Structures are given as C-alpha cells and as structure tokens.
Amino acid sequence: MEIAPLIISLVYQALTAGAFLVLCSIGLMIVLGMMNIINLAHGEIMMIGAYVASLLVTEGLPFFLTLPFCFLVGVLVGLVIEFLFIRYLYSRILSALVLTWGLGLIIAQGALLIYGPFLPSIKIPFGSIEYGGFTYSIYQLFLIFVAALLVALIYFILQKTELGLKARATMQNPEIASTIGINRKKMFSITFAFGAGLAALAGGVLAPTTTIAPFMGTQFVAPAFITVVVGGATNIITGTLYSAGSLAAIRTPIGMYLGSFAGTVGLFFAALILIRLYPNGLASIRLFGRR
Amino acid sequence: MGPLQLFLGERDLGKQKSSLIFFLAYLVSLSIVPMVMGDYEAMNFAYFLLNVPLGLSVTLVWGYCGILSFGQIAFFGVAGYAYGIIAGNLTQLPAYEFIGIGGGILSSMLLASILAYFLFFARVENWIIPVLTLVFTLLLETFLAQTAGYQWKIGNVLLGGYNGMTGIPSMRLPWIDDPLYGYSFYYYVLTFVALVFVALRIFINSKYGSIIVAIREDSLRTEVLGYDIRKWQFFVFVLAAALASVSGILYVQWGNYITPSQLGLVAAAQPVIWAAIGGRSSLLAVSLSTIGMTWFSFTLSTQGNQLSLIFIGAAAVASIMLFRDGIVLTLWNNVGKLGKLFEKK
Amino acid sequence: MDRNEKDITVNTENVESDGSTRRTFIKGSLAVGAALAMPAIITSKSAQAAGHAAAVKVGHLEDLSGNLAVYGVQKDHAAQLAVSEINAGLTLKGGPVGSGGLGAFGNVASKPPLMGVGKGDLNYVNDGGGRSKEAVTFTEDDEILVDSGDDGILGRPVELINLDGQSNNNVWQQLTRKLIQGDKVDCLVAGFTSAEREAIRPIVDQFKQLYIYTNQYEGGVADANTFCTGAICEQQVIPVVDYMVKTFGPRIYTIAADYNFGQLTAAWTKATAPLVGGEIIEEEFVPLSVSDFSTSIARIQAAKPDWVFTLLVGSNQSNYYPQASAAGLEYPMASTVNMAQGYEHRRFSAPSLNRMHNCVNYIEEIPTKRNRDFVQRWYKMFPNDPYIGQMAQNTYFSIHMYAKAARLAGTTEQEAVKKALESGMSIEAPEGTVFMEPATHHAGHYIRLAVADAEHNVQFLREWPMITPWWLHRMGVNLVGKKEYKQYIPDEDPYFTMFGK
Predict the structure, then answer these.
(1) What is the CATH number of domain C55-93+138-231+368-446+469-501?
(2) What is the pLDDT of residues B77-136, one digit of tens each?
(3) Burial state string for C56-76 with b = 16 or more CB within 10 A and e = fewer than 16
(4) Is residue B183 included in any domain, yes or no?
C-alpha cells in the first residue's frame, strides 16, 4: 500500500474522531466551565436534538433546515431545566449531578413511552469521495467543519462580545462579578440554556450517523466526559481543542493497527496518564503566553 | 472513650441513647422480618440488606470526606470476581470461602490504592474525581466484557466475558454442611452488615473521623494544621473500597453470578443515588435509603409496566429538590422537632 | 430401546372429516411413557366441567424499560398474543412425532413408500400401505391456528405473569426468584441477552424450573431444565457463509461485537469457512460502547475483502451501517442478527443495508399465508407495534408449544411436561415446522436466506425447510439420558481449536 493515501486516511480518521469528541463535549464543557455543574442529562439533551431532527425530517423538512430547530428546542429545554431545578443547586455541584442523572432517566424512558423504541433514521447527506483505495464520507468532512465552526463561534462570543466578557467575569469570580453589576442569575441561565442548545445541536448533526433511540445518549456520555476531564475547566476553547485533538491522535493509530478494542482502551489510558501529568487539564498548558 | 461512647457519637443520626435503642430495635425488627416470611422473601430481603455496605462506602467518601466517587461499583465488582476466582479454585481446602472473602477484599483495596495514588497525589480538582472514577469503571466493564473464551481461564474458573462468571461458590460455614440459603443466608448477611455498620460508626466518631470531616469542611486549613490530607484521602478511599467489596462478595454469594454490566453506567450511579436520597452525612440514613430504594426498584419491576425507571428518576429528582439533606435525614430531624414540641406541652 | 414401546396413533389435531387438514395423522411408534400418552390427546371441552380451576401460570420476564426494551416489549406482546389464543381455545398445529424427528420412528411399512400416492400429486408420500389412515405430508399447511379442544390448558385458564427486567441483571435474578418461589409459575419464558439467561439459569436449576429461552444466540447451552427455541450458529452461520463464499468470493472480513455472542459466532465462522473454501482475512472485535466507526471502515478498505461478516449488536453498533454506507463502503454483507432482530432495514434509510444477507428462522416479510395470517393477528391486537422480530415469533410459538406439551403430559407438573417436551414435539409455527430436538433441548428450524436490496426490500434466496441443531450431539450431549447444566463453547471442541482464537 502506498504511504500517502494511508497517511491521509489516518489524518481523516483522527479529524473525524476529534470532531466527534468536540461535538459530544462542547455543551457539557461550557456548562461545567462556567457554572461548575456536571450535567449527567447531557446525553439525553443530545438525544432530544436527534429526535427533533428526525421528527421534522419525517414531516418533510430538509435535514439542514432542522438544525436551527434542534438548537432552539435545546435552548428551551435548558431554560426549563434551569428554571425549575438547576438555579437552586448552584452551590451544590454534587446534588446537581444526582438531579441531572434522575432527569436523564425520566427523559429517556419518557421518549421510549411516547415515541416507541426507534425513530426513523435520517439519510446521511452527500456521498463519498475516493482517494488511493480509501473512501471518505463527505458528511464526516462536514462534521469536522461544523466542530471547527462551533469552537470558533464560542471563541468569538467569549472573547469579542460584551456578553462573553460578562460570562468570563462570572466564570472567574461570580461574587465580584455581581458586585460590578453583572446579573449572575441571568448569566447562569443563559449559559445553561446555551450549553443545552449546543448539546441538542450536536445531537442533531450527529443524528444521521447514529441510531435514533431513547437511550442513544449513553453512547456520548463516556467520550464527552473523558474529553472534558482531560481538557480541564479552566479554559473552554483550549481545553476542548487540546483534549479532543490529543485523544483522537492517540486513539486513531492504535485503533487502525490493533483494532477497536485497543483503540478504546488506549483512549482510557491516555486520559488517565494525561490527568496524572496535567491535573488541572490540558487547558493549563500555556503555549501562547498567558491565557 | 470506649467503643460504646464512640458508637453513640454525634457524627450520625441521634446523639442520645435513644438512637442506640432505635438501632437495636432496627436490628431486632430485621431479625424478626424473615420469621414471618418464606425462604424466598428471606433471600429477597438479604439482597436489599447486602447492598448496605456499598451505600455506606459512598457515605464515607462523599458524605464524610467530600470526595464523590462513581468507582465504588468497580470495587464491588472486582471483589466479586476475585472471590469467584479464589474460592472457585480452592474448593478442596477447608473454609475456602473465607480465603475467598479475604482475597476479594484485598484485591479491591489494592486496586483502589493504585487509583487513589493517581487521584490524590496528583491533587486533581475535586470535580474531576467523580468523572474519572466513572471512566475507570467503564474501562473495567469494557475489559471484562471481552473476556469470553478459554484464554481467560484462571485456574479452573472462566471469567466468562459479557455473559458473566457463573457457578460462584455459595457461603458455607465450616460446622454446617449445606451452603447458606434462605434464613441462614439472611442471618449471615445481617450479621456481616451489622458488624460493618457498627465498626464504621465507631470509626467515624473516633478522632480519625474528626480529621476526615475536617478535610471535607476545609482541606486547606486541615493541611495547615499539619495533616497530610493526601494520605488521609488515600486512606479513606481504600477503606471505602473495602466496604464496597463486602457488598460485592455478599452479592456473588447470594446470586452465584456476576457480569460486567453490573459495573456499568447505570449500576455506577446507583449507590450515589442511595446516598443522596438517604442523606449522605448519616450512616443510618443511607442504610435505610439503600434498603428502601432497592425494595422500591424491585417492587416497581414486579408491576410489569414501563414506568419503573421514570419513578426511580423522579425519586432522585424529588429527593434533591424537596429534601436538601436527603429524605431520611430530613424526616428524622423533623420528627425530632415534633418530639420536642410534645415535650414543651 | 428397552422402554415399553407402545403403538399409538397420535392425533395431532382435531380431525376434519374431509381431510382438508393435511397433516392429519402421523403414524408412529412413540417411545413415550404410558403416563404421558394417555390423557393428552383428547381433552374435550366438557372435561372442564370441574369449574373454576386454578390458573396455569406462565411467567414471562423481559425488559420493558431501559436500553433493551426494544426487544422486550415485542416479546411481551408475543406472549400476550399466545396466551390470549390459548385461553380462547386455540392452538397451533403439531404434536409429538418421535424423538428423531419427522417420520424417523415410523413403522416399517409393508411396501416402500411412493411419492405422489400414484396420482401425480407430489405433495404426498404414501406410507407404504397398511396402518395409516392418511398419507404423511411434507408440505406446509396454510392454516395453523386451530381449535385446541381445550379451554386454556387442561381446562384451566392461563395466567400470564409478565414482569419488567429493567435491562438490569440484578433485577433479573430477583424477579426470577419471585416468579419461581413467589408465584410458583408452571413455566418460565424469559431472556433476551445471553447474559440475562446466564444470570437466571443457576436459579432455574436450583429449583428445577421448566425454562424456555426463546432468543437466537451463540448456542451450546446443555441444561436439563432449559429448552432453547431460538436459532443457533450451526443453523445460521454455515448456510450463509456457504452462500456468500460461493456467490461473492472467499475473502471474508469479520467485524464482531467484542463479547461472548460476537466472539463465539466469529469462532464458528472461522472454523466453518475453510469447509466451503472461504478464508478469514481479518477479524476485528468492537467493544459494545463504540459508536464511531471511521477507523473500522478504513481498516476494511485496507483489507479489501470479498464480503464482510457483520456480527454487530445493540443500538450503538448498528451505527456502523449508515456510517459505512455514507463512506461509500459497498461490500456485500452477511450477518446472523441484523434485520430479523432489530429490523435495521426498516429503521435505516436505504441503501445502508443493501446486499445484507442473513439466514433467519423468522422475519416478518416471510410470504407464506400462515405467516401473513399471523402478522395480521398480531397487528390486530397491537396496531402500533413497529415490527415483529424473530425472537417475538419464537416466544409466540414457544408458549403454544408449552401448552401442547402440558396437554400431552395431562398435567402441568413440571417434570412430566419436560418429559413431554422431550418426546419429539413438532409445532407449526408462522415460520414453518419447528421441531424440539429431545437430546439437545434445541429447536430444528425452517431457515431462509433473506437479503435486503438497495431499496431495503427483503427477498428470499434459498430455503432449508429443516435444519436441526447438531453441534451439541457432537459434544456428546444427550439430555434425555444424562442431565447436564452447563454451556459448551467452541473452545471445548478440538475441531475449533485447530483454527486458534
């Protein structure tokens, strides 16, 4: 086998795996980084996104037009959960964890009762291209693009807008932020809703590549949490990028040469070792001066 | 202070002697329960009861030391597997079950100490521990699930992969020929669990308990006082693993069987939910909620409708929203207040 | 055979005088004890004058909530349908045909049998004259649901106790104890995954409970109390590998779920492929939690097989199909689980499962009249169900088979019913004739090779009207003669170990 197509294939696989990790974890990371809330219903909110996409496609809407609805429904669900539950739990991170676990169970089993065991799958858009004996799904390339776009968008919001400035101030020190007139409660509910919206959007864009079923969320939970833990909560952007990037870079070659099991185990061990080396997450590495 | 004073110490429900009376009543009622039930109900009750040490292990690390761990179920599972391997290979020896129990607990503690080294000596942030222990548990599940086949035969015991390890030896006492079953197994579990409970309550009220609670309240201040909190957290984590392994061993002796999915995502969250619902800062409250929740889950599933998981989820949500300190603990405190009202009259 | 042989004519169903029920009489010398044979055959409705007899309890345990509810709910509905039919006085055709299967123990006739009974109708073989009232048939009846001549079972109504295992093995064990010790069920029908079955089998054996496991699985369970009515590897793997190697070529890439079912079925593939000229060029085992398949897809492309054997299980792993299809992976595929179990051809948009081949014992699309009637009955009772899977059909006929065995035994006493089930029962299921092979407690099935086309329409390429389970025979299992309580795995067979792991 020629070496060039193989390298390109490996790069494609690593980018796909990285994009998957970014999409799974970005909503979780925002909620955790800004609010210190571990949302165990994250997978179920992704499931809601996929359900919205599938139901609307069944209604005749083109797949890409369903994505804004996924985001909006996610935001709505986030607002409701925040209003009813999360706002009482800001000082109780571990209680929030148990609560969201319970919510996750209710949402998933509720979806099973209402919509039955499966929803119709969505046909993966676009075709594939071939190069040197390997074929590449155009939709996977699109997912890589979406992941990059989302990271860029969050970077822009956090760094360049007033809302982002307030958000970062709240994240670093909620008490001081509220003394200078930032409405902390409002900040938190916006953040939680935004995180939920991103999760649902990610669920929507990943929907064509998965089985759309009530308990589909569980498949995203482990990758999302590993990415978040390795990345650390100190900086959302660099944490997600470093973590998803390094995990994908470790997993892909191992998986290619030793098979999926070795790839999965490699991912777990990489996470353990990275945490031992960088207990505060990869985001704490300073590549570009101060963060 | 003698053990009795320690047992009656203040770091659990009830400061007065009334709590001792209550605890005795609890033991007696549990002892009487199977007398009015058949062998089957006794076995069922034994199952509710054998989960108590697992719930207590979460209470110890989370409630008293402030470290939330989703890994307790991994120690539960490792001990169950280790008991199965050791006892299954030594059936020729006298009292091999006891060797299995010892080996099971030690294997879990060894594994816990390796994990604890990574966690506490790296001084990772507090929120990372629950997530990391969860990842660790899932890794263990993934590993065990692919151990079907003869290359995973240890001595003459097959690990069995996802289908699990079968034929794990039941508990047998050296002076009784038959394996423990029904009532006898129930009393064995009751004795074991009660001993663990009393020992833990004495420990938590001792001066070591004070250090552990101090770490939860303010780890920096505790450290400045000259305690190496990393060592203490390490110690508590390994002790909690030993507690969880007691449940694991009792479980495999109860069902003669264990599978990797018992270390899965759903199972990992369960003891944490018990602790949250009971009130994680009380051993007695969590014991009660563990028995209550396992009973609740069992009762729902016998109804044969599809709502059982919704009720379990709702129980978790309700206990967090309505009972800040857990259902059992809140009720207990309020019953105490009611009692005082009566006294005033 | 030193047992008391009795010449009996077994009336498998109530006779219709015009002979329109073709499989009316099967003549045989059945080696069944007198206690079994006598009261079972004719139990008229008047026999129930006894009044309100205690119900016959059928315990049914499946996952109605949680991750596996997809399959559990179907099986639960199948049980409800079967029980309602039994209580309405209906039964599936069939009856004991002897321990060797159809015709194996028939009397030697005075003249050799003649096909077509001399009149050119090849549906019949004449029995050689003499003792038979009708000819023996080997075509299928269209009508299989007939009057049982009984109300419920032996005049007692059937009560279905259906519980929810919550997709959680701990709950499974508890509920099994409840059904056996608490409810004292007469028959236990339960289990989707092999893990669930292995979780409850020790309890079943402890109480010698009659237990029917209705799922397709990896095979090998030899348990005196357990009857397995699903298809197993020798019935599914060998026919499909044979067809695929001959049609598409010898180079096989196996991608399998990394647990017992996937590993053991892959071992079967590896061991049987050389027999038909195939060769496994690579095996990949995927953990059940994996849902992103880009790496596996690239590995398959690098290996360039002739076809891919996919033994992927669970909803995470079925993501492989749309992902592979979108990546332009267009190899023919074969499987033993897909389509018939999780109806992937209905759930995924075409052409994800284009050229997927599977040897199934049942699939909803089987075009025979008896199956179309069954499908119609099903959707009349459960109009909102999405699909009828293989294991749902198995549960359906298994409960009917239990009823037949209890009638044959004349009692619901469990040891007697087990003996009756070991008498060589055959039953006319929607798939075709199913035969309960006594020595292995596994079922011989009508196997069809189903394939999905680019529009996900199902076609049937080949049919094998009866493939009996044989591997446990090879392992020396005879549960009628020697009771065992274990699961054999291919590692114990020297033939398989030749091919390594």
Answers:
(1) 3.40.50.2300
(2) 999 999 999 999 988 888 888 999 999 999 999 999 998 987 888 777 777 788 788 878
(3) bbbbbbbbbbbbbbbbbbbbb
(4) yes
Domain count, chain B: 1
Give residue C475's identity as a one-letter amino acid code.
M
Model pLDDT, residue C396 = 97
Q: How near does any CA of chain A get to the CA of B152, in Å?
A: 16
| Touching chains, A (3+ CB pairs < 8 A) | B, C
CATH topology of domain A3-284: ABC transporter involved in vitamin B12 uptake, BtuC (1.10.3470)
B270: in domain: no
Query: Among the listed ranges A18-27, B149-158, C433-442, which one has the minimum average pLDDT value?
Result: B149-158
Tell me the CB-side half-sphere exposure of residue C183, using CA atoms within 13 A: 24
**What is the pLDDT, as a whole number, of residue C263?**
87
Q: What is the mean pLDDT of residues C188-216?
A: 92
* Beta-carbon pairs below 8 A across chains B and C: 128
Q: Residue range B228-249: average pLDDT? A: 93
Of the candidates A112, A130, A264, which has its C-beta nearest C328's C-beta? A130
Peptide bond into C430 cis (omega under 30): no
Q: Which residues of B249-273 are buried (b: 16+ CB within 10 A; e: fewer)?
A: bbbbbbbbbbbbbbbbbbbbbbbbb
Mutate to test the interface with C, among A260, A261, A268 (most CBs of C within 10 A): A260
- Cβ of residue C454 closer than 8 Å to a chain A Cβ: no
Question: A273 to chain B: nearest residue by CA?
Answer: B118
Distance from CA of A58 to the nearest CA of B (A): 26
Structural domain including B172 reads 16-262
The model's pLDDT over B37-85, given as tens digits with 9 standing for 90+, comes to 777 888 888 899 999 999 999 999 988 888 888 899 999 999 999 999 9
Q: What is the pLDDT of residue C139?
A: 57
Residue C228's nearest CA partner among C470, C443, C451 is C443
Which stretches within A126-259 are classed as H helix?
138-160, 162-172, 174-179, 184-206, 218-231, 236-258
pLDDT, greater one: B31 or C206: C206
Find all residues with CB under 8 Å of B314, minimum gap 6, and list them.
A102, A106
CB proximity C290 to A under 8 Å:
yes
Q: Which of B130, B142, B320 sits opposite A95 (nearest CB)?
A: B320
ipTM of this model? 0.81
The answer to whether residue B344 is domain-embedded is: no
Q: Are strands C432-437 and A134-137 parallel, antiparallel or unpaired?
A: unpaired
CB–CB of B301 and C501 under 8 A? no
Please tell me which residue of chain C has the smallest CA distance to A252: C295
What is d(CA C86, CA A69) in angstroms, rounded to the nearest whole number? 49
A168-213 pLDDT tens trace: 887 777 778 878 888 888 888 999 999 999 999 999 999 998 888 8
Specify the pTM.
Answer: 0.81
What is the predicted pLDDT for the residue at A286?
55
Assess B305–C contact: CB distance below 8 Å, yes or no: yes
Structure tokens at B306: 């599809």
Helix axes B283-302, B265-278, angle to 10 degrees: 130
* CATH hierarchy code of domain C234-366: 3.40.50.2300
Q: What is the pLDDT of residue A90?
A: 79
* Domain range annotation of chain C: 1-31+103-134, 55-93+138-231+368-446+469-501, 234-366
Min Cα–Cα distance to chain B from C250, Å: 26
Taking an 8 Å cut-off on Cβ atoms, the answer to whether B162 and C195 are in contact is: yes
What pLDDT digit, counting tens, does each position of C311-356 carry? Answer: 988 777 888 998 898 888 889 999 998 888 888 898 888 888 999 9
C264 chain-B contacts, CB cut-off 8 A: 148-149
Which pLDDT score is estimated for C471?
Answer: 94
Amino acid at C331: Y
Interface partners of chain C (CB pairs < 8 Å, 3 or more) are: A, B
Nearest CA in chain A to B130: A94
